[in-house]
Specification:
heterodimer, A: Aldehyde Dehydrogenase, Chain A, domain 1, Aldehyde Dehydrogenase, Chain A, domain 2, 2 domains, seven-stranded mixed beta sheet, five-stranded parallel beta sheet, 11 helices, 36% helix, 17% strand, B: 349 residues, alpha/beta, Luciferase, domain 3, Rossmann fold, 9 helices, 14 strands
C-alpha cells in the first residue's frame, strides 16, 4: 500500500496552478478563453477523493521519476506529476523546448508546496526509476529503447472517435462540439469522426446540429494558433464533404464545421475544428470501418445504453459524449491503475 | 469551349501572346463553363463567383483520388492519368476526353523553352503504350514519337542496357528520366561520353523520399558520367495538363529549385497554407495553379508543393509542404527498384 504522503500539498499546488492569472501564456498558442477553460477542467479533475484513490495501490512507488510532456495538450503532464509527487517521488518534468511555460509554472506551483518537482527542457533524460512519456511514436520508441531498465508508462500518438445512436441530436451535438474544440483538437482524445448507427437520416440530423453547435461554441472558445499544415487538410476534408455529402458550419480553417460523408470515406486523422459524420448500419459495421486504425484508437464517446458495446472497435477507453477530453483522474491504463505501473512489485516471503 | 481554349493556347504560343488580363478573362470564362458541366466542381465551388484569377476555387489535388472532376461523363474518358497512389493506395485520376489541349500545350511550350532539343530520345520512363496511365509517359511519347523506351510498364529497366545504349549513341541524345530513375542509373557502374547538345530530363522530386539530401550530389555525379550532356528540369504533375521547364544548364550549375518557366496559360499562385489566402508577390507558400489546358477537367488546383512565384510567373520549387506525403512520378521508379530488389543507395549499392 502506498501511503498518500503528500496529498494535501499536491491539492494545494494544483489549486495554485489553477489560479494562474494568464493561462493563455502557458498553453502553447491556445486562445486565452480556451486555455483558461482547459486548465480549469484539468485541475478540476484532481479532487481529494480521486487523488487518494489513485495513490491507494499496491507496490513500492518510485523514488525518482521523469515525466516527458509533448506539445499538444498542454496540461497532459499535470495528472502524472500530481500522482508521482503525491506518492513521494522526486519528479523531473521534461517540457517541450518550444513550449516550456506550462512545465515551468507546474514545477513552480509544486515547489511552492515543498514538493520536489523540477522542470527542464534538456533532451537527455536523467536516470530515474520511472518514466512517463507522451509524444509521437518515434520519440516513444526511442525512450523505450534507451531507458529499458526504468519502469515505463509510454503514450504514443492515438486517435479517438464517437459511436452514437443520436436520438437527441441537439444535446449530443453540444457535447461532441465540446469534445471536438477543447484544446483546439490537439490531443489524442479529440474525436476525428462520429459514426451514427441507424437510419441515415440520423446522421444527417446530427451533422446539421453539429455544424450549428461547433460554430456556436467556437464563439466562446476561440481558435488559437493553428498549425499552417492544417489548412490544406481542412480544405481537403471540407471539400470532400461539399462534393460527396454535405458541409455544415464555417469555411475558415479551424473555425468549426461538420461534414456528412459516406462511411467509405472515414478518416481518423483529426482536422482541428472539423468533425466528420458517417452513417453506419450497425456496431459491427463500425468495427469494420475502424479496423485500419486498430492499435491506434484511444477513446470512443458513445450514447449507447451500455458503453461497453463500443469495445469491439478496439478502443482503450469508452465514455459519454462531452467527456472525451476530461478523463477521470487515475483511470486505468491497460487495466492497471497508473501508479501501479510505475511501482516496484517485489515478492515478499515471510 | 475546347476550341476556344485551343485557339487561346495557340495565341499564347504565337508571336504576340495575350497578356495577363486576357489570361484572367479566359480563366474566369472557363471556370463558369466548367461549373455548369462538372457536378463535382459545382458542388465544390458552392456557388462562389470569383472576380479574379486567384479567387477561382482551387480543388485540392487529393480530391481527385475520390471524385471525378470532369465536364463530361467520367466513363467516357479516353485518357486516365493516374498518380502513384502510394500514400493511400488510391491513385489520383486525371480524366480527359481528348488530349488536344494537353498535347498542344505540352509540345508547344516544350519546343518554345527547349529549342533545339535532340530528336533522338532514350527514355528510362515507360512508353505510353506500356504505361497508358502515366502522364509523363504520354508526354515523352508526344514529344519524341520515335523514342526508344528502355523501361517496362512498371518502370523497371536494366542499367547495363541503358549504359550501353548511352555509350553507343551517335550524336546528341535526349535522355528522359526522373530524379529517382537517374539515381538508380547512376547507382550502376557505367558512363557515356554524350556529345554537346545532349540533354538529360530530370523531373519528379526527391523530397520526403530516399534521396532528399542527394539531389546536388546526384547532379554532380551525372555531370561526371554523362559527358557533355546538359540538364533540363521539368515541373509537372498528373493533375495538370501543362508543364514548366528550366533552362538547359550544365549539371554543375543546376539549382534543383529552378526556376521553372511556365506557359502563359498556367498561372501559379502562392498561398498561405494555413488560411489559403494569396501571399504578397515573392512570398513562399503553398502552390496553386490555374491551368487553362485542363479544359475538360478542373482548371484550378491546390497542390501540396511549396514554392515562390517570381516576377513574370516563373516559380521556384522548394519541395513538398512540410509534413506532406511524398508523391510524384519519381515514386514509380523507386517502387520499381524496390520490387526488382536492386541495391539502393541506402542499402550501400
Amino acid at each position: 500500500m502506498v501511503p498518500p504522503v503528500h496529498a494535501d500539498r499536491v491539492l494545494e499546488a494544483v489549486r495554485r496552478l489553477a489560479a494562474t492569472p494568464d493561462p493563455g501564456a502557458l498553453s502553447d498558442g491556445l486562445s486565452a478563453p480556451m486555455a483558461a477553460r482547459c486548465l480549469d477542467l484539468a485541475c478540476g479533475l484532481i479532487t481529494r477523493e480521486a487523488l487518494l484513490a489513485a495513490l491507494d495501490v499496491p507496490g513500492v512507488p518510485p523514488r525518482t521519476a521523469a515525466v516527458v510532456g509533448a506539445r499538444g495538450v498542454f496540461t497532459a503532464s499535470l495528472e502524472w506529476v500530481a500522482l508521482l509527487a503525491g506518492a513521494g517521488a522526486e519528479v523531473v518534468l521534461k517540457a517541450p523546448a518550444a513550449a516550456p511555460h506550462f512545465g515551468r509554472a507546474l514545477a513552480a506551483a509544486f515547489t511552492a508546496e515543498s514538493l520536489p518537482v523540477r522542470c527542464t527542457t534538456d533532451r537527455a533524460l536523467p536516470d530515474t526509476e520511472a518514466i512517463v512519456a507522451m509524444g509521437d511514436d518515434a520519440s516513444i520508441a526511442a525512450i523505450a529503447a534507451t531507458h529499458a531498465r526504468a519502469r515505463l508508462a509510454l503514450h504514443g500518438h492515438r486517435t479517438s472517435l464517437a459511436l452514437v445512436e443520436a436520438p437527441d441530436p441537439e444535446t449530443l451535438a453540444a457535447a461532441l462540439a465540446l469534445d471536438t474544440l477543447l484544446y483546439d483538437g490537439r490531443g489524442c482524445f479529440t474525436p476525428a469522426a462520429v459514426l451514427v448507427v441507424g437510419p441515415p437520416q440520423r446522421a444527417a440530423d446530427l451533422a446539421e446540429a453539429l455544424g450549428r453547435a461547433l460554430t456556436c461554441l467556437r464563439a466562446d472558445l476561440p481558435l488559437g494558433d493553428l498549425d499552417p499544415l492544417h489548412g490544406p487538410a481542412w480544405r481537403h476534408r471540407t471539400g470532400l464533404a461539399r462534393v460527396l455529402g454535405r458541409l455544415y458550419g464555417t469555411d475558415a480553417p479551424g473555425a468549426g464545421a461538420a461534414g456528412l460523408l459516406p462511411a467509405a470515406h472515414l478518416d481518423l486523422n483529426v482536422v482541428p475544428g472539423f468533425l466528420a459524420v458517417h452513417s453506419v448500419a450497425s456496431v459491427a459495421e463500425a468495427a469494420g470501418r475502424v479496423r485500419p486504425w486498430l492499435g491506434h484508437l484511444a477513446a470512443c464517446a458513445t450514447d449507447l445504453a451500455d458503453p461497453a458495446q463500443v469495445l469491439p472497435l478496439g478502443v482503450e477507453r469508452a465514455c459519454r459524449p462531452g467527456r472525451l477530453q476530461t478523463p477521470p483522474f487515475g483511470r486505468t491504463h491497460g487495466g492497471l491503475e497508473p501508479l501501479r505501473m510505475l511501482c516496484a512489485h517485489p515478492s515478499i516471503e515471510p | 469551349m475546347t476550341d476556344r481554349v485551343l485557339a487561346f493556347l495557340r495565341a499564347c504560343l504565337g508571336p504576340v501572346p495575350p497578356g495577363p488580363d486576357d489570361v484572367e478573362a479566359e480563366a474566369l470564362a472557363l471556370y463558369h463553363w466548367q461549373v455548369t458541366r462538372s457536378p463535382a466542381y459545382a458542388s465544390f465551388a458552392a456557388g462562389r463567383q470569383p472576380r479574379s484569377l486567384d479567387e477561382i476555387p482551387a480543388v485540392p489535388v487529393a480530391l481527385l483520388r475520390d471524385v471525378p472532376f470532369t465536364c463530361f461523363p467520367p466513363s467516357e474518358a479516353r485518357y486516365r492519368f493516374e498518380t502513384s497512389g502510394t500514400t493511400t493506395g488510391r491513385p489520383g485520376i486525371h480524366r480527359l476526353e481528348t488530349a488536344a489541349a494537353y498535347d498542344l500545350g505540352s509540345a508547344g511550350w516544350f519546343h518554345r523553352r527547349v529549342p533545339g532539343a535532340p530528336a533522338r530520345c532514350l527514355s528510362l520512363v515507360p512508353s505510353p503504350v506500356s504505361a497508358p496511365t502515366s502522364s509523363l509517359s504520354h508526354m515523352i511519347g508526344l514529344l519524341f514519337p520515335h523514342a526508344r523506351f528502355l523501361a517496362d510498364g512498371s518502370g523497371c529497366f536494366d542499367p547495363t542496357e541503358a549504359w550501353e545504349a548511352l555509350a553507343t549513341a551517335r550524336g546528341p541524345v535526349f535522355l528522359a528520366t526522373t530524379g529517382l530513375v537517374l539515381a538508380h542509373l547512376l547507382d550502376a557502374p557505367g558512363s557515356a561520353d554524350l556529345p554537346e547538345g545532349s540533354l538529360v530530363l530530370v523531373t519528379g522530386g526527391f523530397k520526403g523520399r530516399s534521396h532528399v539530401e542527394d539531389a546536388v550530389a546526384l547532379h554532380a555525379e551525372a555531370g561526371r558520367r554523362l559527358g557533355r550532356a546538359a540538364y533540363v528540369g521539368e515541373y509537372g504533375m498528373t493533375e495538370l495538363s501543362s508543364q514548366g521547364w528550366t533552362d538547359p544548364l550544365p549539371f554543375a550549375a543546376v539549382d534543383p529549385e529552378g526556376p521553372f518557366h511556365l506557359p502563359p496559360w498556367l498561372v501559379p499562385v502562392a498561398v498561405d497554407p494555413g488560411s489559403g489566402a494569396p501571399l504578397p508577390p515573392g512570398g513562399r507558400g503553398q502552390l496553386r495553379f490555374v491551368d487553362l489546358a485542363n479544359v475538360e477537367s478542373v482548371l484550378a488546383l491546390e497542390t501540396m508543393d511549396e514554392g515562390t512565384v517570381l516576377p513574370g510567373g516563373s516559380i521556384l520549387l522548394h519541395g513538398r509542404l512540410p509534413g506532406a506525403p511524398a508523391r510524384g512520378c519519381s515514386l514509380t521508379a523507386e517502387e520499381a527498384a524496390a520490387l526488382a530488389r536492386r541495391p539502393s543507395r541506402e542499402r550501400g549499392g
